[in-house]
Amino acid sequence: MGIFPQSLYNAINPFSIDLPEKCLLHPQAPLVLVLLLLVSGVLCVYLAAWAQARRRQPGALEFGLLAWAIAIYSLGYAVEISRTNLTDVLWAIRIEYLGLAFLPALMLIFTLRFVRNRPVHRAVVSGLLAISFITLGLVWTVEHHSLYYISPRLEPGDYFPVLIFERGLWYRVHLSYMLLTGSISPLLLFWYARRVESRRRSQMALLGLGALIPIVVTFFYAAGKTPYGIDSGPLALSITVLFFWLALFRFELFQIVPAARELALDAVRDAFVVLDHSLRILDMNHAARNLPEAAGWKIGQPFPRQGSLGEFAHYSLQRPGGELEFSAVDENGGLRHFKARSYPLKNVFGQTSGSAILISDVSETTRLIQHLDEQASTDELTGLLNRRSLMQWGAKLVEQSAASGAPLGVVMLDLDHFKEINDTFGHKTGDEVLRCVAQCLHSGLRQGDVLGRYGGDEFVVFLPGVEFGGAMQIAERLRALICACRMSGELSSITISASCGVFVSQAGQTTCVDDFLRQADLALYRAKGGGRNQAAV
Prior knowledge:
12 strands, Rhopdopsin 7-helix transmembrane proteins, 18 helices, elongated, Alpha-Beta Plaits, 537 residues
């Protein structure tokens, strides 16, 4: 019986009943192992409850379910190794598999949720969990088939009875599934660790190391290399959860903490780029990858210094908080407008360690402002400058003429007998005539001339740098273009002509745009009095 009597062993270890002699060599071993499993289970229950309290945060649900599964597995295995008959052991195993069956799927779902920064697609979740549910169903009905355990029996182990069985078909499927999904998780975490900034890289490496522990233990257990036939999976998984918990608290970056921020940044239309002190890209959101200039941007690579945005990014390291408006041509050849703002990033010592650049696509706003400006400054009927804008431009030209001493001419045109056209053909036809005249006038101007609709059927042209003779030539050319203007269709019989008043100011003669227009209006009055369809000064 060994160095301890059977009665004394039973008193010390209440979990062992009628064990063989060689199980009594170390009577405390089962109790110590059971206590370790209980502690691991309670720890996992705590972490699961902790995640449950934060279930509204991205990633908390996946972490909590994983912790619950490990807790059930640990507590169930504690019950299994404390039983001494096959019926009790099989019932304990049924409880274990409420967690164990789902561990491969939950570990992979948790990993995918973490590295991809968004929830795993429901179809993927359903596919992963389908195998788990099949495994659970086969374990709970194990006495009716041989798909999982073949001829299960208890045999004496070094410390406690051990379940011995031949592996059924689905047992091999589940084991392969566990090894495959368990291998994918650390590989994904280590691979993504290379693509993120240094602080998060340490976090991912710690998570990858934690995910690697149970897969290594599972390989040894599947090969029959674990000491005394003990399934060390629950303890290994508890260590894994501790690694995950450490990554969560030590780095304060785990998916539960930053995911809401990252998902929000990926959801917004504004581009966001994080640069370190050497202008290296630490992170960027999805919108940044879609910028016209972002083809060569990669996390971990230097930010390009050429172009207006590159110069701004470089400048923002010296003076954060600046703004830049720039334009770029997209892949479709369209011109897009952007506004960039830089924000300083401080380290724990309050020193600037980098900058974050927020880039907003303001194309729609820019186009709207341009449209509103055009509406505010453009005559709706003819598309020319309206009277207010025409007067503003005229005032600027008068000031420039007075300052430089260069001459400034002005031509005022009024359509002849326009009232008769309205009365005979209607105002709609009159509008068509005005549009036709506007096009003719626009085609006869030089670059730099300013044309606008003064009101009704009157038009005004400012002619910078034009002497008297040149102004008269332009006025005659414009009058001839109006006479040549012909309407289409039934309105082709309408004859259009105009009278022109011309005024040219020499340096210092006048500094008021109203004086210009008054003099041009007097000239126009003389042209009409002289028989119309002519230019007068």
